[in-house]
């Protein structure tokens, strides 16, 4: 590499040695050199090293932990009210590190929506495998959903309680929410189809799947409002039974 500008230490070997020794503090190997090009090369390297060291993410950075903190922050305050300062405080990461890892605020939110949906699926989907009649499995499903929505300091659902307000004006958030709705309906439909031995669901039963999904949204909102967990579970089970009974 040729120097882009004359080195301030090119004609001063002692000053050059001081420069190189000081660079050693931040990572370059100390050595004695009087060659002005080599001194200037190390000087440029030092500036690059220091700049990138400042911009690097913290050594303790863990993407999944950070994403969980981001999701919790958005759940607590919603998308619009959450600032980048809120996110940096929650994750312990500076802004350049956040942007490097997740992109801009909207990209962080979309990643948080995906993470939240995955966490919810892990929490509630196993309940649908509960043996016995469909009503029993659906009741266990809503029990698990209530526990999930009421856990942690910020209650409710990131999808149903925050994305709904952003979806009308943002197609990406709308697509994420619509996709989540469809996957929930697919899970419920699959469980109900097991009771019909694979036969197509009657139109009335397909409509009841949508009613169960709407009930899940209602449960999320009431959890957000602080309704007692035991009351939520009892109400959700009763409502689910009413929805399913005509098709039994």
Structural class given helices, strands, pairing? mainly alpha
Mean pLDDT: 80
Low-confidence stretches: 5-33, 42-59
Record field, number of beta strands? 0
Helix content: 55-70%
Q: What Rg do the Cα atoms give?
A: 28 Å
Helix and strand sequence: HHHHHHHHHHH
**End-to-end gap:** 79 Å
The global form is elongated
Number of helices: 11
Main sheet makeup = none
Into which percentage range does the β-strand content fall? under 5%
Could you explain how this protein is built, in words?
The protein is built from 11 helices and no strands. The chain is mainly α.
Short description:
By secondary structure, the chain is mainly alpha-helical.
Topology:
Layout: H1 13-23, H2 36-55, H3 63-77, H4 84-91, H5 95-102, H6 105-124, H7 134-150, H8 158-166, H9 171-194, H10 203-224, H11 229-244
Helix pairs in contact: 1-2, 3-4, 3-6, 6-9, 7-10, 7-11, 8-9, 9-10, 10-11
Feature tags:
mainly alpha, 248 residues, elongated
